[in-house]
Design a protein that fits this description.
This protein is an alpha+beta fold and 151 residues long. 25% of the residues lie in helices and 40% in strands. It is built from three helices and seven strands, in the order E-E-E-E-H-E-E-E-H-H. Strands 1, 2, 3, 4, 5, 6 and 7 form a seven-stranded mixed β-sheet that branches. A hairpin with a 2-residue loop joins strand 5 and strand 6. Helix 2 packs antiparallel against helix 3. The longest helix is centred in the C-terminal third of the chain and has 18 residues. It starts with 5 loop residues before the first strand and ends in a 6-residue tail after the last helix. The mean pLDDT is 94.
Amino acid sequence: MTAPRVSEEVSAGGVVYRVVEGAPLYLLIRDSYRNWGFPKGHLEPDEAAPAAAVREVCEEAGLDAVTLVGEVATIDWRFRFRGRLVHKTCHFYLMETRSPTTCPQKAEGITACRWARFGEARSLLAYDNARQVLERAHAIVTASLAPAAPR
């Protein structure tokens, strides 16, 4: 008996934040299954993961501009799609924007976008691995917002 073939997929996405009154707000998108998560998508041929992440964030959330801050985490999971086993790897990057305006990409099944404080975002996220990505991103953001220690 042979093991089932596993299809490998690679995606990239972003944890986008903006600072309002000194506190970060995080961008979440809701998919067609009504699950909240982060914008992400497949890499195009010969596209680097950071470029794909920026492209997918701007497309899925309708943002005009984001600044890539750095890599947050790479996660992977397995699932079945139309009877085949898929192993998906997703590279997440931290991004900052000043724009509060979003527009969900309905053609891709994005039904809503929303900005949320850390605690609310953490509770809305549908998957544990997404919560772990948010926690890492939040640690980076809060460290960058902390006042410098006096010398």
